[in-house]
Structure formats: C-alpha cells, structure tokens
Fold:
Amino acid sequence: MIDNDSVYLQGTNVEKERFSDCSQKSFEWNIIYDCNYRCPHCIFEGKWDEYRTRTRFLTATQWLAVWERIYRRYGRASILITGGEPFYYPGFIDIVAAISQVHYPINISTNSSGDLTAVVEKWDPQRVSLSFSFQPNFNTLSEVIERTRFLADKGFARSYINFCAYPPYLSDLDRYVAQARNAQEILKIVPFYGVYGGKDYPAGYSDTEKMQLGITPAWETNVMRRGKYCTAGKNTALIYPDGKVARCGQIGERIPVGNIFDDDFALLERAQPCDVDFCPCLEAELSELNHE
Structure:
C-alpha cells in the first residue's frame, strides 16, 4: 500500500474533497462535451461525436446573465467546472473572469493544457483555483508539476494532481507517486470506473491492486450510497453542457432537476433517496455539509 502522506484516494475523506464554504449552494458545471485529449479511460471515450452537438455555446456576457439569475435566487454559490476539457470552450477564460465577480470560489478541473499566462492575467487567485490531471498518454507528470508550480508562484492555491487508476497505468504508479512526493506534490488517485479486459472496475481490481491503491473494505463501505437520503439536488447539482441539471454525476440525467436556462429554474426543496450503488466523489456527504 502506498504511503497515505504521498497520495489521497478519492472517496476517503469528505473534508479533503471539498473546496468551498459549506453554507453555499454548490454546482458542478460540465461546460463542454469536447476535449483536446482522447484518454482511453474517459467516460466519454467513443461517444465524443454523439455528445459534442449537445454543448451550448454562449458568450461571457450571456453566461454572466444566467449566473446572475442564480445569484438572485440563491446568493453566491461555489462552482466546480469540468468537461470535457473546460479550456476547450471558446472564450472560457473571459467567462470565468466574468462569473467569478459574482460566484466564488470556483475550481477548474483541467488537463492543464490551457493558456496559463492568460489565467494569471485575468483570474483572481483568491476566487479561482485549478486542479490539474496527469494523463500519461498525453502529458508527463513533470509537465503537470511545472504548471502547478507556475500557478503557485502566482498566488494560486495548490491542489492534488488527479490521476485515474486505469489498469494499464498501475505498473508505473509507484514511480509516479515517488516523483510527485519528491516534488512535494500529492497525487489524488481516482479509481477507474468502467470495463477493461472484460472486467468491471473498480470491483475488477485484483487484491494486490486494491492493496496498492488503498481500496479496503472500509473504503468500499464509505462510498456505498444506495437507499440513503441525500441532499444532492437541493444543496448541490450538476449542470450539463446543454443546460440540463441533474442531482449529481452518479444519478445523471435519469432524474432531472430542471434546466439552467429556464427563468424559473430552482433546486429541489428536500432530500431524496439515492438509487446508485457508489458515490466515489462523496457528493452525498458534500451536499449534506451545506446548511439545511
């Protein structure tokens, strides 16, 4: 098992998963169904052409109007922006600069390939942070560490370096962890959810691989959620690129909350039972931290 001071396993500790004030409403915003990478472990692998047409493209001014309406209803919210690759969205840097005048903190989950010079020029590090991912097929860990340090030197908060535990990557995991540790960075291990080699993961990990990753029975119990009431959809929600809003990424579009572009959009009024087996992002616990 890897030293816990060197890595963080997603789904282990809710305090390490959150970046915002618990008193706020919180949105995860999947802004675009497109990416400049084609990672084999991505949930959109093989579906990019199908999904790409669903993205709504608005200007910074238009998006600001949408988020100002959210502000009038709920006050300042925290926003986690994902994709696809968020920086692939036209005008993304200006969009974040505009929205962060109203809503913050904002965290960007990115593969780190965006224009970081423009980020430093236009974003307030007191309101916006970035979480980089290391994708072995497209970037190197050294490059990601260098970009992390660049932003840290400019006053941006440091974060974990996200790393998907895709089975073919595991043979090099110890080396990656050591490299990050030597650079005083920490890898966040994200278990692979999907099918590889005819096995469904994360259940498909061998006992040796589970030990390597720190996946214990206690961890598996911690991420189980089926049947439990959850305030996702009430305190938090997931926004899709076409404006549809779901309770969370695990339930997805099966149980819609509404559409962000509707003038009367509103979150749910009460908690609802969860109908999924696992919540590796701890979205349930994160939503319950928000004030009732």
Notes: The longest strand covers residues 26-30. The chain has one domain: 7-289. The first helix runs from residue 14 to 17. The CA atoms of residues 119 and 165 lie 29 Å apart.
